Amino acid sequence: MRYIDVNDSEEVLRAIKLTDADRSIDLIVHTPGGLVLAAGQIAHALKRHRAKVTVFVPHYAMSGGTLIALAADEIVMDPNAVLGPVDPQLGHQPAASVVQELLTERMPQEQASALAVKLATGTWTHDYPIMSEEAKPS
Fold first, then answer.
1. DSSP code at position 33
2. DSSP at 21
3. Three-state SS at 77
4. What is residue 4's DSSP assignment?
5. CA-wise closest residue to 12 among 87, 72, 73, 58
6. pTM to 2 decimals?
7. pLDDT tens digit sequence for 22-36
8. Rounded to whole angstroms, what are the CA distances from 75 to 25, 42, 49, 66, 112?
9. Residue 39's Cα: distance from chain center in Å?
10. Assuming Cys at both sites, which of 21, 33, 53, 58 could form a disulfide with 72, CB separation 3.0 to 4.6 Å?
């Protein structure tokens, strides 16, 4: 199992940059996901490439892998291969439900629900730095 990290984004971004703009790119993606920052950089670079981009998914491209695949002009998948949702997870539960569960003993249900949505449903990227001032209750 191989997670997408910043080293991957550095290498793939370098390869895309060194590829002539009129030359097509074929990329094999087989990953359980990884850092949103890294996957997002790769996806944006592929999207900006002028020539055709094809992503091949032989087995699975989950989360950040799906994000990368969605940036391609064409996705070629084995009949048994899968993509996955692009949502944060903690263990096997969606992060929003875990966050809400953790908060309901400390604040009203409505406030816990609103905070869970803000923290775990795409308001910010996974690596968004929430500074202490922003984290204080209003």
1. -
2. T
3. strand
4. B
5. 72
6. 0.73
7. 999 999 999 999 988
8. 12, 15, 15, 10, 39
9. 6
10. 53
